[in-house]
Hints:
By secondary structure, this protein is an alpha+beta fold. The chain has two domains: 2-50; 83-268, Thrombin, subunit H. Helices cover 33% and strands 32% of the residues. The protein has four helices and 14 strands. It has helices at 2-10, 12-30, 33-82, 257-268, and strands spanning 85-89, 92-96, 98-108, 114-119, 132-134, 139-146, 151-158, 163-167, 173-177, 185-189, 202-205, 217-225, 234-239, 248-254. A six-stranded antiparallel beta barrel has the order 3-4-7-6-5-14. Strands 8-9-10-13-12-11 form a six-stranded antiparallel beta barrel. Strand 5 (132-134) and strand 6 (139-146) form a beta hairpin. The longest helix is centred in the N-terminal third of the chain and has 50 residues, at 33-82. The protein is elongated and about 100 Å long. 23% of the residues are buried. It comes from marine metagenome.
Amino acid sequence: xxxxxxxxxxxxxxxxxxxxxxxxxxxxxxxxxxxxxxxxxxxxxxxxxxxxxxxxxxxxxxxxxxxxxxxxxxxxxxxxxxxxxxxxxxxxxxxxxxxxxxxxxxxxxxxxxxxxxxxxxxxxxxxxxxxxxxxxxxxxxxxxxxxxxxxxxxxxxxxxxxxxxxxxxxxxxxxxxxxxxxxxxxxxxxxxxxxxxxxxxxxxxxxxxxxxxxxxxxxxxxxxxxxxxxxxxxxxxxxxxxxxxxxxxxxxxxxxxxxxxxxxxxxxx
Length: 269
């Protein structure tokens, strides 16, 4: 404390000068409107810069919260879109209900021929095997293993993966498979040459399984091999998804999947 007092006393002339200078500036500004306006202008500019910087920092730290809110909103929209969707086929009315839940990818492989992902939801969150996983842009894969808190997903970038897909606005279906090469492209096999198809056509989920709803986006036709075989096209599909950087995903539960599978098994007996 004594050092502080000694420091003030040793610099008292400077302090007195600064106090008088500030008081003089105040008197000049207070008695002159021009100087007042200039000071206000400078003060406002300085304040606006400070608030702008503060707002930018605040917005940065709010990004995570805003992103989570967007995921929740997207989740709600998907549930509204696919729940109680009615499909009429002649005299048969089928009511399919899908429930979507959000998850995050915590591990992702795409450099092998058989790639898998890990998501941060498990059986305690209501996740089971053979549930579909998608992003906002397309199909990610199918759950093959489940623990209490996590699940393993067979990526569509897996040579053993086969996804039922179709040409949008068409009744022609095929099997979507990966050849182990380019992670941005898959092949749609078994589409007969009687189907009308052109470069740029949209490829969507076929809805012929109980895992994925019909018409989920997958990608677009980027190449057609007319010489692939005598009866079928060789179709290359450019994915909507960037499978190397996807983080936020949705798990799909078809609440009637078991019932549908049981009926299919009876047909195959």
